[in-house]
Amino acid sequence: MFDGLKKKLNRFRNDVEETAEEKAEAEADADAEAESAPADAAVEPEASEPAAAAPDADTDAVGDADAGSEADAVDAADAPADAEPESAPERDAATDADADTVDEPTGEPAADEAEPRESLASDAAKAALSEEDGDDSSGPGRLRRAAAFATGKVVIEEEDLEEPLWELEMALLQSDVEMQVAEEILETIREKLIGETRKQVQSTGQLVSEALHDALYEVISVGQFDFDQRIAEADKPVTLIFTGINGVGKTTTIAKLAKYFEKQGYSTVLANGDTYRAGANEQIREHAEALGKKLIAHEQGGDPAAVIYDGVEYAEAHDIDIVLGDTAGRLHTSNDLMAQLEKIDRVVGPDLTLFVDEAVAGQDAVERARQFNDAAAIDGAILTKADADSNGGAAISIAYVTGKPILFLGVGQGYDHIEKFDPERMVDRLLGEDE
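Structure tokens predicted for Signal recognition particle receptor FtsY (435 residues):
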């Protein structure tokens, strides 16, 4: 189920993880090179030669300065009284500098004696490094683990997500996810991942999985309510009306729910409001007989609202818990059929109106759900043939588009092949966590 979409989501997770890990390795290599640079400079021959030559240079400088002083004294005596001595400040400064070099330390370290640059790793990182001395791993890998241990590491930036997000958007649209829903998913992922910090116990894949989980859950779980609790708390008989176009499995879904309720201890009666389609009575009667259920039906061409009303009357008279009412397949553009649905709502006052469509219909199912909800508000949706759906676009999109939840998935042809829709389990399936 939804295998195609599952593969596309996993591809996005792998793409982001690969991008982030490559960047983390590059940063770690750069940090390692910066860490080793001062130590390398200290052992270079060129760095030590000035220090070795310094004493001789200083001695020569002092001797030259003394000789120069005597010559300058003779020249000064012959010069006019008002003449300013040339280069006197420089000569005095040089002499003072030489004297300071010989007699007194300046208090400042020489270039080759400068303090080493502060380590990029924190104290905690250094401690983590020292603890790993017995490990066979070394170099950038050790530095990267230590830095992650000490401070965490920003692994995902906006530019890292640009290409993977574009590819994910294309994948979602190809999987029949409605465009507005795809955009919402992408925006949530972007908000949750950009600037995210990975701790030592996490991997980038875990971060991406968490972001995908939250983004998918937010759109899938819109309007969700506890269906079983709603049925349990409602006054009996509870009336459920099923609507949608022809051929999507409404009648079979009604039979499956009759079996579902029977397992929970509820009694049910079926009412056929699909009074215009040839063979509709025969089809639903076969299901009723197979399940041992009472069917309320009128002659072809009768009033659908009257049939379902009779079903409610029968349930009240025979202490039946739930009425399951079928309706004619209709499109939102069919004014007559939509008027019938409105009349059923007015005459019967159903507790829940459920929209049924095929999961494999993809965006067509999403659009029909929107149109039916606009024309006559639905309370929830049921998707048939979910077991044959590789894309999952309808399952992801319908709740967000209509504001009404998906309640059940049809997963086969048997009466037991229906499962209650669980948003959390759906997300786990898509992310490969529900094996």
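DSSP finds 16 helices and ten strands in the chain.
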